[in-house]
Design brief:
The chain is of the alpha/beta class and 268 residues long. Helix content is 38%, strand content 17%.
């Protein structure tokens, strides 16, 4: 039992771990950072008694822009309701969607070697129409709506497909840029033409550019702000010790490859 008049209660700091590629679908083989996974953690974090701050331990190469935006907005909703500061602490990477989420914090701290930024949008796929022709396979596709089969991998890419996809990516990029402007605003120390190209930087470089506010690690930053007696309460999704099945499904295998590719784009 706590006896307040003998010693003051140490400040409580919630630590919410947000890691992995950001995707709508969670898989037993990794990935799956999304609102469904983050929402209960955020609810528990902001509901702690004696809460002094919420720290977000972010380690993500990015992923779904929609899930990134949903998680970021939920963080802001809780922060404004609870009126407590939120600090994002970047580990290996807070890139692309990971940086989108980090910008929901009031301050961003990174390790000097962390990867930050990648303020851009990417779309990837493949095309195999010639392979189908060589194998004598006929593609049968019927649509109602002439743009319904945009970028079908089994049909030759058209100029219209490229233009429509470019328009979509530019629109998503504009949303990302608006969010960074809203959250970082006057703290940005470089022209937008340099910051919003999709390029990423180390933590030390990001600090000079205004993409983060300081260098450090989670425990050290918590102690610097709240003293060595600060009570850190870790909250993170529990990973299964073993997957549901010894053999992943095709969808799980693709998700794992996509996450690996996202990390590889950062050189990690």
């Amino acid at each position: 039992m706590w006896i307040p008049f003998l010693r003051p209660r140490p400040p409580t700091v919630a630590v919410v771990r947000l890691e992995g590629a950001i995707s709508a679908r969670a898989t037993p083989w990794g990935g799956g950072l999304n609102l469904a996974a983050a929402a209960p953690l955020l609810h528990r974090a902001f509901a702690l008694k004696g809460l002094a701050a919420v720290f977000l331990a972010i380690n993500s190469p990015g992923g779904s822009p929609v899930q990134s935006a949903l998680v970021a907005r939920r963080i802001r909703w809780h922060a404004e309701k609870a009126k407590v500061p939120v600090v994002a602490v970047c580990e290996d990477a807070a890139a692309s969607g990971g940086y989108w989420i980090a910008c929901a914090a009031d301050e961003i701290v990174a390790d000097p070697a962390s990867i930050l930024g990648s303020i851009g949008v990417v779309s990837s796929g493949f095309g195999a129409p010639e392979a189908l022709a060589r194998w004598g396979i006929e593609r049968r596709l019927r649509t109602a709506g002439h743009e319904k089969a945009l970028a079908d991998p089994f049909l030759p890419e058209t100029a219209q497909d490229r233009a429509r996809l470019a328009e979509l990516l530019d629109t998503l990029h504009a949303e990302f840029k608006d969010w960074v402007r809203q959250r970082r605003g006057p703290r940005l120390r470089a022209p937008e033409e340099e910051l919003f190209t999709g390029r990423f930087w180390t933590g030390r470089q990001a600090l000079a550019l205004g993409l983060c506010d300081g260098l450090g690690d989670l425990k050290g930053e918590a102690e610097r702000r709240f003293g060595p007696r600060a009570r850190l309460v870790p909250l993170g999704a529990r990973r299964r010790r073993f997957p549901f099945s010894l053999l992943p499904s095709a969808a799980d295998a693709v998700a794992a490859l996509e996450e690996r590719a996202a990390w590889a784009r950062l050189g990690l």
